[in-house]
Amino acid sequence: MKKVAICLIFAGCSVGPNYRPPLNSISDTWIFPTESSERPLVKWWEVFGDELLSKYIEEAAKHNNDVLTATSNILQAKAMRQMVASAFFPQIGADVNATRTYFSKNGPVIAGADTAGVDSTPSTIPFNLQFPQLQNLYNAVLDAIWEIDIWGKTRRQLESATALVGEKIEMRNDVLISVMAEIANNYIGLRGLQKESQLIEENILLLEAEYFLIHKQYEVGYVSRLDDETIQAILATERAKLPELTAEIHRNIYTISILTGEVPEALLAELIVPKDLPKIPENVAVGLRSELLLRRPDVRKVERELAAATADVGVAVASFFPSLVLLGDGGFQSLLLNNLFSLASKTWSIGGDFNLPILQGGKLIANLKAKRARVEAVAHTYQETVLKALQETESAIISYNQDFKTIQEKTTAKNRYGDLVCLSRERYTKGLVSLLAFIESERRYNQSEQDLLASSTKALLDTIFLYKALGGGWQEI
Questions:
Q1: CA nearest 410: which of 340, 370, 458?
Q2: CB neighbour list of residue 434: distance below 8 Å, 6 or more residues apart
Q3: CB atoms within 10 A of CB 342
């Protein structure tokens, strides 16, 4: 029985619920058929084969301010965990002090006090203690306090703090993935805008040539003013697109610079030079559907938050039980400084405090209810996060797959318009069609190029969204 009591005091037990990770019955197969069940790439940006894109993503992982803030939050959470863990050990402090006290002559401690006119009953006679009226007192002591974790309150607090460290780590991973995807989106968008700008400039040249011919025809009365005004309006509309594209190009460059921790203009000279869009990967490894939750930092973050909330319930339950605190101090005390550290000046005390909450006005019960409600709320948040992760990924998979069909059809259309240009050129050289008809065929081909560019850009952006939805990128950074 004695051994059990000692075990109870020094090992203790942890009251409250023990945390168990949520169970998710998610199938291995995706809704939309996919051929690749291999694990998703970690460094997914490398599939685009663009050195600049890879460089910017790796720079952002090191220097992005949001990522650095999230990293600092991890360090803060770890420090808080260490503070909680310190409660397992005795808290020892040193106290060295000196006081000088002047006692009242009418008080009970002055020797030879005048008792005239004072009731002589023992309860009213002043103490006849030999105290000097002016007194110095010197102390040099060590004091210790140690709360024994009988009911596991500190252990539950440590569980909560540990889970919160994990939560901060997953928050950082989530921020990192978002930053990576944002850089990739802006980079792909930039290259798409630069190519679009080139195609529009080519179209403007064709429209200018077409306007020149129509205006000449209008001057000689071959066509009406309506034709002349129409071509001018089309030309002005096309020219109006360039300033907007230029502004958007610069915005993308500035955004990439900021995301890498640089000033907006830092990457301007490097990125303003046009470059082709990266090639769209023909297939993306998506892994098993059931493994998605293990990769998604947002899901992992809420799971850690649920663990912390569950541990907080244990802390609330432990508050209903008595606490045991061991107290002790020892050192030296003297009225004279020169003999403070002599053997005769030693002093010590030892004791304990056993505290049992009896009436708290419902505070403890309300606290426990609040902690339990918090667990329920986080559990619902977890389930919602899981459903959102599945929805995002399934949507990304089908968008990625359907993009290829769109690109295939628009590539066919572009090739057909290319053949039409060749036929029109041949017929024009033979004098069978007018120059206007030939220019018009080139304009249709230019428009087909713009359509294909828009679909290719969208497919690349959908690919990035798919990789983000799969939760890749944080594992090796």
A1: 458
A2: 428
A3: 11
One-letter amino acid for residue 421 of the chain: V
Cα 456-461-467 angle, rounded to 5 deg: 125
Q: Which of 147, 250, 145, 152 is nearest to 194 (CA)?
A: 250
Distance CA 466, CA 393 (A): 6
pLDDT at residue 16 is higher than 90: no
Task: Find tokens 């429209």 and name the residue.
Answer: 207
Buried b (16+ CB within 10 A) or exposed e, 25-36: eeeeebeeebee
Per-residue pLDDT of 74-98, as tens digits, reads 999 999 999 999 988 989 999 899 9
Identify the DSSP state of 110: B
Q: CB–CB of 142/329 below 8 Å?
A: yes
Q: What is the pTM of this model?
A: 0.85
| Residue located via tokens 């792909």 | 188
Q: Which is it for the CA torsion 452, 456, 462, 465, positive or negative?
A: negative
Backbone dihedral angles phi then psi of residue 102, each to the nearest 5 degrees = -110, 115
Per-residue confidence at 396, pLDDT binned at 50, 70, 90? very high
**What one-character DSSP code corresponds to residue 279?**
P
> What confidence tens digit (pLDDT) does each residue in 242-266 have?
999 999 999 999 999 999 999 999 9
Write the pLDDT tens digit of every residue in 363-372: 999 999 999 9
Which tokens belong to 107? 């008080």
The number of helices, as runs of H, and strands, as runs of E, in the chain is: 10, 4
**462 CB-contact burial (10 Å; exposed 0-12 / middle 13-18 / buried 19+):** buried
**Token digits for 263?**
């000033």
Question: CB under 8 Å to 229, separation ≥6 — which residues?
Answer: none
Q: Distance between alpha carbon 356 and the CA centroid of its chain, in Å?
A: 42
- The pLDDT mean for the chain works out to 88
pLDDT band for position 107 (50/70/90)?
A: low
pLDDT the model gives residue 118: 45
Query: Helix axis angle, 153-219 relative to 225-259, nearest 10°?
Result: 150
CB 433 within 8 A of CB 424: yes
CA angle 396-397-401, nearest 5°? 115
